[in-house]
Fold these 2 entries.
Entry 1:
Amino acid sequence: MMMHQAPMRTRSRGASSLIVAITVLLTAAISFMPSAHAGDDAAQILKAMSDYVTSQKTISLTFDSDVEVISSEVEKIQFTSSGKVLLSRPDKLRVSRTGGYADAEIVFDGKTVTALGKNINSFSQLESIGSIDQLIARLRGTHVVSAPGADFLGSRVFDELMADVISAKHIGRGVIDGVECEHLAFRNLEVDWQLWVEMGDRPIPRKYVITSKGVGAAPQYTLRIKDWKTDPPVSADAFTFTPPQGANKVALGELVNFDEIPQGVVAGGKK
């Protein structure tokens, strides 16, 4: 009997110790929940990031993005993509994105914007003389491309991001891909959004999360920016579009499954 009882007591003590450890950890987590810094400087950090990003004439980067949707059964589903950006201010842009439902590319040479659906071997072209800022506004107006990450590509990043902000907080610090960042949180009437900005003399955006408060279960859009390069080598034809062999030219509305989620699905993370 004693040989059977000893292990039972050992398990009991072990379980008790585990419960105590978990309780301590949870209590510590609650006690140390970050709050806004006194004399909050979230807007100043955002402005420094904006000034740095908009001062760069040529930028290349890679990214991963996640878009959440809520099904009719109130199930949260996440769609993921990865892509590349090459930007040359004020009027050159090439963006590619590959996900489970689309393999898409946008090429802008300052006069014409081309949207290519590689998975359907079809493309559409629109005359779009002007800047990258004007291009982003036009593309969002078509409802074919939502592009929340485009918030960082224009020339008025700070003004665009802060336009409807009602609350700004500097939460503290975090680490993204091994890089220490300042963690900021902002609110407006429809969404909450968070931004992690790299610390040091290169304050680039590292992570961006938009939460849709007006949608049940609060779906999110998440963007993680990687491999940011300033003044990368750019080939002479970097912003020239050459149609793939056999590609069909179609109207913009015919580019099905061009966005990050399947056609007909309403996503969260609209800002």
Note: Residues 42-254 form a domain with the outer membrane lipoprotein receptor (LolB), chain A fold (CATH 2.50.20.10).
Entry 2:
Amino acid sequence: MARNGLKVEAFDIGKRGSSSDVVFDALRDAIIRGQLAEGEILRQDTLAQMFNISRIPVREALQRLEAQGLVTSTRYKGVVVTPMSIAEIEEVFEFRALLEPRVIAFAVPQMTEQSLAQARAYCEAFAAETHPTRWGDLNRQFHSALYADARRPYFMSVIDKTNDRIDRYVRAQLELTHGMERARRDHQAILDACAAGDAQAAADLTREHIVNAGRTLVAFLKAAGR
């Protein structure tokens, strides 16, 4: 539930015997889902009160979020949810278009039936989902299932952190630019290439999918006056 105006799922950590990991996970999830808007101020005292803990684990959680680029410490406002410029968003999508096709190309030759079945389930769930709040999660789960057999844990950690930075924008792109129909078609084409064992086609389709999503999002943001 939201307390003190912040849309964060808060609970009494003092009763759970947990740590700053719980605060980190809650804030990260709220930022990724867009529940905490870019530029929103995150006050340590408020968060400590929400989670019924001292400021120390809150400060540790905020430092970890800052290391991932999700929040920024400012001189006058304190810690705020990091806003991204159009130039930064373009660069992130350019980076994804370089890295993710490479990873899926590694994965296809050693992709298991289990991974394909899992990706197919996510693909079908994504296509059938009508609630926008679920689109972002299913989109990431679909791609992650197809990348898993690449056996490149460092690559995957970079992809995860990169997607954390822009996840809220990807969700906006799907919801506000009517991008779901194109995404459904793209996902099915990528899945079919993987099932056929065609690594080059899977890589090319993944690159095209990412480039198109980035262009659509940037065009929308520019039209909205960002």
Note: The radius of gyration is 19 Å.
